[in-house]
Amino acid sequence: MLHAAGPLLTVDVSTQTSERTAIDTVLERFIGGRGVGTALAHERVPFDADPFGPENSLFFTTGPMQASTMSFTGRMNCTGISPQTDRLLSSNAGGFMSRNFAATGNAAVEITGQSDELLIVHVTDGGVEFEAVPELEDATVPEVTTYIDETHGLSSEHVACIGPAGERRVRFASIMTTESRAFGRGGLGAVLGAKNVKAITFDGDSSPDLEVPSIQMDVHRDAATSDHIMKRQGTTSVTDLANEVEALPTRYFSELSFEGVEGINGDAVEDRKYTRGTCSACAFACKLPTKDDERGVETEGPEYETVMSFGSNCAVDDIVDVMQSNELCDRYGMDTITCGNVVAAYLASEDEFGNVELIHDLVADIAHRDGVGDRLAEGIERFHEDLEVENWTVKGLDFAAHDGRTLHGQGLSYAVANRGADHMFSTMYAWEYPLVDADDALEPTGLEGKPAVVIEQENARALEDCGIVCRFSRSFMTPDRFEGLFDAEYESLLEVGSRVVTLERHFNSRRGFDRDDDSLPYDLPGFENALDEYYDHRGWARDGTVGTSHATEILADD
Ligand code: SF4
């Protein structure tokens, strides 16, 4: 089975030391990415670690094809205990850093400890250097990347960094790379901030010498010649459909469609798109560099999720206002989904929907923990009672934009996902929208038969996260291409995905979480039975936990 290659590099920022450890067995068993991060966390992070404590680690991990020219592989994984969900969480970012990471010769880089001074950690194929950077305190993401470019000659494609939000431990702070790409969900930027690490750079010339089968060229060609609508509108191409079927959260989740959708839909984004945007080596190029010359706004995106969080959920019907919110989040280093939903919650409490000036002020206040921003920086689960608004979260993570009250299988997925109310954990929504090209589309209503489908999809997504293959490769990365590329039966590859989901659940079980945490703030018909069915299919206990013997079996060498 094809898997990532190279050692684990552990960087302890408390002692400013580093060491390399061979992790071949872990790589063989988990391929790379999220699986390797999850397995390493089991070995190296105490189950009761404080997300902000020195004993929590961040594991940056790559897959086997990050040094190839294959489309859909310009991505990276980061795993750690999330300060937003308090659970083990993996987050995935696109951009261009993955190639530079692979060039350091490491399969995984662990950042652990806690520094006394603000640092940049420079990782190369020759070793690790630590640079104290007190002058970068409070610097924005573009300020950090400009500094590194000017002082070290490394472009933003070599950099993972945080903005002021990460330094101030905003619980949904991102780790940013290539300036506009984010390890977004779950607040891993705040973990880096708690370690007093402002940035990590990756550079080298020691990419692993792996032969990727020639199928990669077929994938690349098909991606280049496809006329898929995502190449024009990215994820925003789904906006009108979601609105039509009433799956577009609006006015802090109180409505399911938005009367102002035309101002923020895929066409509105495409109108502001000024060039193609991509991740390294990806011929699909679905990214969205946008600008509005009249108002002087330039950003990358917004993606569909941000169109919801800062658009319909805040009752904002002008895409340029959403673009501006997107740009502010990137600049300060915050997840655009959570930040928009947090702002929407505040607007609900103050009856201020549509107040764009307030929205943009709040984004800056949250990033700096100024005034009410200090409370909002804690996330909806922690402030909703104070603000007397509903708690639209699962496991502390606020909902993504494909509403589970309409797409019931997606609702079940939000409830059970180890990461909380996150759409990428299974992408179950894709089977429940009435899309013309989906022969195997499911009725959106009802949960009958869906637990098994949710599991299948979760396993397939976890496999993508281990191999570091982008979610949007679905039409191109067929099971037979997975088999050809990874040199294994598709069923055994899915088994890797399944192991990873179970291992994550075990880690979270050890932190005291169970079935009570797999719950929704709304009712779905047959939900409790569907939960039983889901646990039974997974081989988990009916209380939603995974025992240590099960995890030990998964981690054991064959
Ligand atoms: S499909 Fe889009 S997000 Fe995925 S790797 Fe290609 S450009 Fe990046």
UniProtKB/TrEMBL annotation:
Annotated InterPro entries: Ald_Fedxn_OxRdtase_dom2, Ald_Fedxn_OxRdtase_dom3, Ald_Fedxn_OxRdtase_N, Ald_Fedxn_OxRdtase_N_sf, OxRdtase_Ald_Fedxn_C, Tungsten_al_ferr_oxy-like_C, W-dependent_AOR
Entry keywords, A to Z: 4Fe-4S, Iron, Iron-sulfur, Metal-binding, Oxidoreductase
Cofactor: tungstopterin; [4Fe-4S] cluster
Highest taxon of source: Archaea
Residue stretches making up the Aldehyde ferredoxin oxidoreductase N-terminal domain: 5-206
UniProt-recorded Gene Ontology molecular function terms: 4 iron, 4 sulfur cluster binding; electron transfer activity; metal ion binding; oxidoreductase activity, acting on the aldehyde or oxo group of donors, iron-sulfur protein as acceptor
Cleavable signal peptide: none
Family of this protein: Belongs to the AOR/FOR family.
Official protein name in the record: Aldehyde:ferredoxin oxidoreductase
